[in-house]
Amino acid sequence: MSYQARFRVWRGDEAGGELTDYEVEVNEGEVVLDIVHRLQATQTPDLAVRWNCKAGKCGSCSAEVNGRPRLMCMTRMSTFSPEETVTITPMRTFPVIKDLVTDVSFNYEKAREIPSFQPPEGVAAGEYRMAQEDVQRSQEFRKCIECFLCQNTCHVVRDHEENKAAFAGPRFLMRQAELEMHPLDARKRRAEEAQEEHGLGYCNITKCCTEVCPEHIHITDNALIPLKERAVDRKYDPLVWLGSKIRRRTG
Length: 251
Ligand code: SF4
Ligand code: SF4
Ligand code: FES
What we know:
Blueprint (H helix, E strand, L loop, with lengths): L2 E11 L2 E11 L5 H11 L19 E4 L2 E4 L13 E5 L6 E3 L2 E2 L2 H8 L19 H10 L7 H5 L1 H4 L11 H11 L9 H8 L10 H5 L6 H18 L1 H13 L1
Parallel strand pairs: 1-5
Antiparallel strand pairs: 1-2, 3-4, 3-5, 6-7
Helix pairs in contact: 6-9, 7-9
One iron/sulfur cluster binds next to helix 4.
Cofactor: [2Fe-2S] cluster; [3Fe-4S] cluster; [4Fe-4S] cluster
InterPro entries: 2Fe-2S_ferredoxin-like_sf (IPR036010), 2Fe-2S_ferredoxin-type (IPR001041), 2Fe2S_fd_BS (IPR006058), 4Fe4S_Fe-S-bd (IPR017896), Beta-grasp_dom_sf (IPR012675), Helical_ferredxn (IPR009051), SDH/FRD_Iron-Sulfur (IPR050573), Succ_DH/fum_Rdtase_Fe-S (IPR004489)
Organism: Mangrovactinospora gilvigrisea
């Protein structure tokens, strides 16, 4: 079944822009990205859109469809009724470059601020051993395709540009959690670093990041809450407190 659907697409650049109306053919089985491509091919050859795999795996085609952050290649047109106007806008949290393409370098800067895995001393590469349970725990976090929809959705930065300097965002706090839970990581203060240097305290566990994750990663329940618990447990555990005092005195 084919039909003509109404689309409203944000057109513009960093100086400003507006929503523009189009009518585009929709065919059975198509996704929003198919429509954007048809729009480019038939009416707006200069429409800017970022995409790569069209299979939900590269994380490039993130945008907001009817106000909801989504991957355009994984949003079926059958989600909407033929009478509905489908509005496509760029991710709101990042600066617009052109049309649906945003500058996501905020995320790369945050990624660079997190120290990488620190190998354990005295264990040669190839001799690392981990329990299967520990492997599985980090496996969930490693499904991340870096679409940055969670970063775009988190209210801490979505409407508060001023928080961006201090807050790494759910994707990169999750990376901290992954390393904190890694039994071989020799860097021992990941949770405290997340709290003190990467803004973990800004997160009030609303779970909005989890709701938009196309990989269905339980970002809040499995990464952010355990990270908060570890930071608090170690800070208020009397034995840990005493140990740190002794270390400071003998140091
Ligand atoms: S759970 Fe935390 S990181 Fe996720 S959207 Fe809410 S405040 Fe942001
Ligand atoms: S955690 Fe999920 S929403 Fe966030 S960047 Fe990774 S895949 Fe995207
Ligand atoms: S084009 Fe790769 S995730 Fe959509």
